[in-house]
Every structure is written in C-alpha cells, then in structure tokens.
C-alpha cells in the first residue's frame, strides 16, 4: 500500500499536467488580466515581441517580479484596455 499511493499521486499529476497543457493551444500563452477580478486570456506568442505588449510585460515585471499571484503571467492592466490592445495587435 505504501508504494501504490506515490504511484497514484504520480499518475494524478501526469493527468493534470496533460489537461493543463491541452488547455492552451499551441502557439499561445495564457495571461491573467484585470484590476480586481482577473480574467484569463489566450494570447498568440507572436504578439510577445510587439513593443506595446513588451511595455505591458515590463509593467508586469515591475509590479509582480516573477511571483505572479494567479500562478501564470499576470498583466497589470484593465480588462477593456487589454482587449482593445490585443484587437489592435491582431488587426495589424
């Protein structure tokens, strides 16, 4: 019984890892945005090098460092401003 429990935990971790990985499509990254209530957005990695998005990443680094409260990349930005920015980046 002592050997089976660690094996069960290992299998559970592998299942959860596969579920989390499949949750984000290839070529995208999940980010959390919002002042009070954070909402999750999937962003194409192609926008990460855009100067405007890099400015948001710099603000995230200044505010959170590498300790993001949601467990993922948290962007310090209002949700409506982020949606406006990403729609402009997608159309350009």
Walkthrough of the structure:
- The protein is α+β, with helices and mostly antiparallel strands and 92 residues long.
- It has one domain (24-91).
- Helices cover 51% and strands 16% of the residues.
- It is built from three helices and three strands; from the N terminus they run αββαβα.
- The protein has a three-stranded mixed β-sheet with strand order 2-1-3.
- Strand 1 and strand 2 (39-44) form a beta hairpin.
Annotation keywords:
globular; 92 residues
Order of helices and strands: HEEHEH
The major β-sheet equals: 3 strands, mixed
Shape: globular
E-strand count: 3
Structural class: alpha+beta
Name the strands of the widest sheet in spatial order.
Answer: 2-1-3
- Share of residues in helices: 40-55%
Q: How big a fraction of the residues is strand?
A: 15-25%
Distance between the termini: 59 Å
Radius of gyration, in Å, reads 17 Å
How many domains? The number is 1
Mean pLDDT over the residues: 78
Number of helices: 3
Point out poorly predicted stretches: none
Pfam family, one: Auxin_inducible
Protein name: Auxin-responsive protein SAUR21-like
GO biological process, one term: response to auxin
InterPro entries: SAUR_fam (IPR003676)
Q: Concise description?
A:
It is built from 3 helices and 3 strands.
């Amino acid at each position: 019984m002592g050997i089976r429990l660690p094996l069960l935990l290992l299998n559970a971790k592998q299942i959860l890892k596969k579920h989390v990985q499949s949750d984000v499509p290839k070529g995208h990254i999940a980010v959390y945005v919002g002042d009070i209530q954070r909402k999750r957005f999937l962003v194409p990695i192609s926008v990460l090098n855009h100067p405007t998005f890099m400015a948001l990443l710099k603000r995230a680094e200044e505010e959170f460092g590498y300790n993001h409260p949601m467990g993922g990349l948290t962007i310090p930005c209002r949700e409506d401003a982020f949606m406006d920015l990403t729609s402009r980046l997608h159309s350009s």
